[in-house]
Amino acid sequence: MNPVPVVGRFAPSPTGDLHFGSLVSAVGSYLEARRAGGLWLLRIEDIDPPREVAGSADRIIEDLNSLGLVPDGPVLYQSSRLEAYQRAVDQLLEKGLAYPCACSRKDLSASGKYAGTCRNGLPPGKNPRSIRFRVEAGVCAFEDRLQGFVSDSPADIGGDFIIKRADGLFAYQLAVVVDDDFQGVTQVVRGADLLDSTSRQICLQKALGLVSPDYMHLPVVISADGKKLSKRIQTDPVKRQEPASAVGQALKFLGQNPPPGLALNSLWEWALDHWNIDLIPRASTILPDDTFSG
Known about the structure:
about 290 residues, Rossmann fold, three-stranded antiparallel β-sheet, 2 domains, Glutamyl-tRNA Synthetase, domain 3, three-stranded parallel β-sheet, alpha/beta
């Protein structure tokens, strides 16, 4: 019997241009899939129109192509998958694993945990606003390929969480689970800022009868002032860099040590031959101010 082929993916949100933190995730996911002889897919997570920046999806795709990060197959846009998300919501409702909720953000506790107000039915006189997933008590544990053994309790951390918002938009936690299954994704390589989301996604996968992929959470890129490097930081250097330089710096951030002066194609050849996850730092890492100098 042939083993399941490795399928990795990179799934940016079109809320701005490609930044260095996202490039690190793209490079890590690409190399982890390619080194295993697998496929690397690209998904644009465009299900939150109020946060999206016009044209950024196209620019992200163009930037990835210029950096040598070309996906194996057409780009999947989440905005084309709304019917699939609704089917998943309906399935969970029918099983009693999700329920309508009348609460708003102000009804949450100071810790952000949902108190379960609507868990056993809507309070009198209240109308449904969102749909929440019913989180059962217990520990969710998984083995992260980089971070090691991870164990937490989604019920204790945040309680029942929203899978369809009051504005009718589908939540990230639901959409990512449905689409990873649809695309046949077997490994998820992404930033450690999403590590806390993994247990909730595993809960959804089990509830929907889906197979969980393997997870690997890379160190988050931190700017010198201690903030997560993101599209909102205007000094992000990726757009200003020559492609081989940007990819080379991403590799260095991931603990790899490519020789200086390689052209882009040669750099990718070197990276595929020498990719070693044992060299990747586990913790969030500050990006030095002079990373892109010279």
